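Tokens help. Consider this.
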Amino acid sequence: MFTDAFALKILNILALGFITLIGFVVLAILVMYIIDVTQHTHTLRRNYPVIGRFRYLFEHLGEFFRQYFFAMDREEMPFNRAERAWVYRAAKNVDLNSGFGSTRELTPTGTVMFLNAAFPVLEKDASLPSPVTIGPFCRTPYTTSSLFNISGMSYGAISRPAVLALSRGAAKAGCWLNTGEGGLSPYHLEGGCDLVFQIGTAKYGVRDLEGNLSDQRLQELAAIEQVRMFEIKLSQGAKPGKGGILPGEKVSAEIAAIRGIPEGHPSISPNGHPDIRSVDDLLDMIGHIRAVTGKPVGFKAVIGEKTWLIDLVKAIRVRGIEQAPDFITLDSADGGSGAAPQPLMDYVGLPLKESLPWVADLLYEAGLKERIKLVVAGKLITPSMVAWALATGADFINSARGFMFALGCIQAMQCHKNTCPTGITTHNPTLQKGLDPTDKAQRVAFYHKNLTYGVGLIAHACGVSEPRQLRRNHVHIVMSNGISAPLSELYPEPIVILGDDDASHTINPNRYSSAIEVSPND
């Protein structure tokens, strides 16, 4: 009897709860109906009250359904599932082998294929990437053998645990970490890795109270042994022609202090350096920073209009080779780890497939390729992409989003909203707690190790003992007729060294206009 009474009481409570829930649902629908028919902003909701709201819900959920259920392994943008899966496996140091053949289609225009040699390099004859020295005319040159490094991501744009993981992981891997334009934080230093300090248009971290470049701050940074080089950022792939964007909700007291800006206010850098308005200004700035710090100095840019680079080469020839930038970082128009206006992200700048061979050949023709090291960035996250860049003329490759994947990024496309579900690009402590810097640092190191190993596999298969010996004749590109052509024919390696009369007589800004279909897409 007691059991029956108890069961009846539970059923009554459940029934009451169900009726109450239905009442709240009806009330909510009524409230939404009144709001929808009285508002004047959304036509769809006014014409179809309540029901019209599902359109916005499905639109929001659509990108996640496409990512997990509907898109094929090699269809998604900006990175497809096959690319992301390779990085995840590399970062976890699990089996990177696949079975039953490749799922990669070999016929689309722009497909990259490496030419295997009849007699590949034996493992006993293989070499590790050779060391390269940057800044031979500096008081403190920088020598490294790491061909794959971490691109600029500011503390503020990414979280404290993310910076810690990258710093510790870079130290384990032996690669450099670019600070991004947001200044040097204690978390960059904690891991003990080599650092490239990036100087953005707002001069964060090296500015005085008026926002001008501070020699005192430069000297203080140069005194830190970990800070190996300085990079002047002219533009970046996500937003060429616009400065960095950090939403106000990400500008904490700590970030404000590091950058020298007001707390809680959006941090928007100028779209250009007010004190760099010509190639002579750029060379003056590079020379000044190099003289103050004694360390290598270069610049980062997305290539668009090209004649200014020809003017830069002419100016270097007049001033002397020691006045040249120590390195140039080329960012691709399809870069994008930072927040950016879509018109700039989608339509401005040249992709790396076009800018890299042109700039590499410009430096070759000017006799500057050995003096000015070429660093490239832009969707190069797998061994094939890195090998293509090395063969085309790069000395080093940087990646931001590849290392974000190593940290656990799921491509949620919420980097600018402070709602990153993996804790990488958010300052919400609740979301950050899932990112363990110790564990992720090991994944960063594994990713670097396995990618470098993968590039080596390609190099050895092509018959060279180490990756930096890859050349354009080792690569074929599928053309629009479905037949591949040698990269060395599409982009012939120059053999002419410029004379002293006119630097422009062997340099054609449109040299590769007929080969722009070439792409390193994996």
About this structure: Residues 497-510, 512-522 have pLDDT under 50 and may be disordered.
